[in-house]
Amino acid sequence: MKSWTLRFEPGEGPAWMAGREATVFAELGAEPAGKRVACCEMKTSVAEEGGLLKCAFDVRAALEVLRTESYRLPAKPVTRFLPFHYHHIPGGVRIKIGQALEALQKQEFPRWPIDPSGDALRWLLGERGGRWPNGKSFALVLSHDVDTAKGMKLSRKLLEIEAKHGVPAVYSFVSATYAIDKPFLRDVIAAGGEIAWHSDLHDNRIAFEDEADIRRRIDAARPFLDEFDVRGFRSPSLCRTPLLLRIAGERFSWDSSVPDTGPGGGCATVQPWRIGKMLEVPLTLPMDADLVFRRQKPVAWAGAWLDKARFVREVGGAAVLCTHPEPHFSGSAPAWAAYDDFLKRIKDLDPWICVPRGIDARFKEAA
């Protein structure tokens, strides 16, 4: 799909677009009359006349391309083709493979760690963000994907750090792979947190099943989903297809499988939106896995998260963090120290700290 670059004129557009560009997937029509607000090379793409913005392209359709990621084919991880579960490969070895693959990546869009393309389009549509409870300018969601039995055991340390700072989090569990520590899940809920489903098997295949098999896998998890009032979903390794998200929307109130930028694409917006009745809460802070694959040590993680959170605050969106309490990701003393440091420093930015069902309720109130 062809794209072009939108640049705001100096002094025009939102302040957070200064020095940044937006990638637009849309046909560019005749130049609108009026004062130039934004351009594509030397051609006016957005103009202002009489206090109204006029665009040379279909802004809403361009935003939908990003939200649905229809500018790309769904990325299929090589792990789904292995004759055995990829977790049988030691975590340290998987890290080395991930780092090697990351070094070979040539993804030009979306840019990492910030790509404002979708939010620039939302701004043109008048969707300016920042309308969060208690006058807060942005929301913060803390989430953890518990992929294995080791992650299950190490999750309590994250909960202890959150209790120290008095903040809730959402924990996503794989329901048919390891023994679920039900007392721990109840402790998460008692602390104001939320439980989400991370599929039945972390095999990276559910997104690429046919409709009947996706439904079968969700139906098989119903005892777990019902027991813990599970309303949210995140696909393993963020593998996602339009079919999976459509079917997930029949059972779940919210999904958080789409990043704003990477891996394998992204929506390029830090604002949640609806997919039918289901709220999509995009992942917007760099995942611990992304940072590890980019060879960043835990001592640098809090700074990376805070840098992105400052951008999210400017836009008025939702800063959504995902970590994994696995030994090779966030299940170690240096990673715990980074998380503790982040929770201490993020309060200076004054976010509305919530779980996804809180954002879903907020959006329903505003509808």
Number of domains as seen in the coordinates: 2
CATH class of the largest domain equals Alpha Beta
Number of helices: 12
Listing every helix as H and every strand as E from the N terminus to the C terminus, the arrangement reads EEEEEHHHEHEHEHHEHEEEHHEHEH
User: What best-fitting shape do the alpha-carbon axes yield?
Assistant: globular
Radius of gyration: 21 Å
Oligomerization status of the protein chains: single chain
The largest β sheet comes out as: 9 strands, mixed
Question: Which residues sit in consecutive blocks of at least 5 with pLDDT less than 50?
Answer: none
CATH H-level name of the largest domain... which superfamily?
Glycoside hydrolase/deacetylase
CATH fold-type name of the largest domain: TIM Barrel
Account of the protein in words:
The protein is an alpha/beta fold and 367 residues long. It has two domains: 4-57, no CATH class; 120-366, TIM Barrel (Alpha-Beta Barrel), CATH 3.20.20.370. 35% of the residues lie in helices and 16% in strands. The chain contains twelve helices and 14 strands. The protein has helices at 59-68, 91-104, 117-124, 149-165, 182-190, 211-220, 222-227, 242-251, 288-293, 301-315, 333-346, 356-366; strands at residues 4-8, 22-24, 35-40, 43-49, 52-55, 139-146, 170-173, 194-197, 232-233, 254-255, 273-275, 278-280, 318-323, 352-354. The strands form two sheets. Strands 6, 7, 8, 9, 10, 11, 12, 13 and 14 form a nine-stranded mixed sheet that branches. A five-stranded antiparallel sheet has the order 2-1-3-4-5, covered by helices on one side. Helix 10 packs parallel to helix 11.
